[in-house]
Specification:
By secondary structure, this protein is mainly α. It has 20 helices and no strands. The chain folds into 2 domains: 30-207, no CATH class; 221-429, no CATH class. Helix 2 crosses helix 5, helix 6 (112-127) packs across helix 7 and helix 7 (147-166) packs antiparallel against helix 9 (188-204). The model has no long low-confidence stretch (mean pLDDT 79).
């Protein structure tokens, strides 16, 4: 029996090695490596935002049914913590548009300051159609939901910049002019071209890419409550995360109206005397909290954090200890963009599989009368081992995240070995 298990592990490892080779070549493309580098560069902003989100959760009086904050003296500052989080994670796409543009400009051999500015300017113009009636501007796309747009505008605008410079379509200054002034004048034509294209698409044609993406994904939202729907939701959400897009904001959030309706139905049923174990809706609160929030990250992110902590690789160990504290509160951006898991040729597959499979198991467990269903809503950043008991009133649900963690760990192990080996090989080559 042991030989069969070893043989199976060897086959899985061999398969992941064969798969990782072409994916590794893909990840080395200038555009892809620039995206990864840009996301990693934004990690300090992500980490700071994560810290303030944790402080908000600890100081929020809406945690569970206690009626007061877990750390009461933080309560007066709770909203201020949330505001700081909005200015960091809430502007994530804006920061990333700068870092991706700078990385791509460096790889194309153009002035990195000029590249970062053309990327930032194009992103802003492409997202803003003008002032609203109150005189303000809609900055929705500046958050993580606009990451896909930031990636596209950064790559396209810097490519335009490179094209103009390569073909000498620039304003040339005498050699006696200082380089920084010369670079500024050389950037005028490519800036004009990139900004004008963005303006034409967003303002003249009135094309809102963020709304278009949401509309494109919306037909998938209408599925009924069953195990396959739950797994499909998580699969698509994690697939988006795996390529650097904010799956929760771009796709999972589309289910919020359904989740809130199902949560309301469960609450009414509970008030009418139905026990928590027999409430009608298993996916109540989906899109905000509930089953998927309790399941996904314990299976797809927590195992990676533990594997990093026990790793002999200094970078992985340091990042693991750094990511564990926000990770406990399911703030996983430090892992997804800091390791990164996004666009990682070795870890994308187990990242998607672990959360998807765990969701299927989770749904089937919660469908039994042994576990209570969700009837309350608490902040999404609540640790999963607390989220289940507080939202279902059933302390047995504290066991579920433990089950999911080990499911994810088993799925990750063979892939993780290949990933660590690739890091060691790179270190040897250097």
């Amino acid at each position: 029996m042991e030989n069969k298990k070893n043989s199976l592990m060897e086959k899985v490892t061999s398969f992941t090695t064969r798969m990782s080779a072409p994916l590794a070549k893909f990840s080395q493309l200038k555009s892809i490596s620039s995206i990864v580098g840009g996301l990693v560069a934004a990690m300090p902003v992500i980490m700071i935002g994560s810290v303030f989100m944790i402080l908000y959760v600890l100081g929020s009086p809406s945690i569970g049914t206690l009626g007061h904050a877990l750390i009461p003296f933080l309560s007066p500052l709770a909203e201020k913590f949330a505001w700081m989080n909005s200015l960091t994670l809430g502007f994530m796409a804006l920061y990333v548009s700068i870092s991706i543009s700078e990385n791509y400009g460096e790889k194309l051999g153009v002035d990195v300051k000029g590249a970062s500015l053309i990327g930032l300017g194009t992103f802003i113009i492409f997202n803003l159609s003008g002032l609203d009636k109150s005189g303000g501007i809609d900055i929705t796309a500046f958050s993580a939901s606009g990451l896909f747009i930031a990636i596209i505008t950064s790559l396209v605008s810097v490519r335009i910049y490179w094209f103009f410079l390569k073909n000498n379509i620039t304003i040339k200054m005498p050699s006696s002019v200082p380089p920084n002034i010369g670079n500024a004048f050389a950037a005028i034509f490519p800036y004009l071209a990139s900004f004008t294209v963005a303006w034409l698409i967003r303002t003249i044609l009135n094309f809102d890419m963020l709304k278009w993406l949401n509309a494109l994904l919306e037909p998938v939202v209408g599925g009924s409550q069953n195990v396959w729907t739950a797994m499909l939701i998580v699969f698509i959400t994690l697939l988006l995360w795996s390529v650097g897009l904010h799956g929760d904001n771009m796709f999972l959030a589309l289910f919020t109206p359904f989740g809130m309706t199902w949560l309301s139905e469960n609450s009414k049923a509970l008030a009418n005397g139905v026990s928590s174990e027999h409430l009608p809706n298993i996916l109540a609160a989906v899109g905000q909290s509930g089953l998927l929030r309790m399941t996904v990250w314990t299976a797809s992110a927590w195992p990676v954090i533990v594997l990093m902590i026990i790793s002999k690789n200094k970078f992985l160990k340091t990042l693991g200890w750094t990511a564990i504290w926000p990770g406990i509160f399911t703030i996983v951006e430090p892992v997804i963009y800091g390791l990164p898991l996004a666009l990682n040729p070795y870890l994308m597959i187990p990242f998607i599989l672990s959360g998807t499979i765990a969701t299927g198991v989770s749904y089937l467990l919660m469908a039994t009368p042994f576990f209570g269903k969700f009837f309350a809503l608490i902040p999404w950043a609540t640790p999963p081992f607390l989220l289940g008991p507080l939202e279902t009133g059933d302390w047995k649900t504290i066991l579920i995240p433990i089950i999911y963690f080990f499911i994810g760990l088993v799925i990750y192990l063979p892939f993780w070995q290949s990933y660590v080996k690739s890091l060691d090989d790179k270190k040897t080559e250097q």
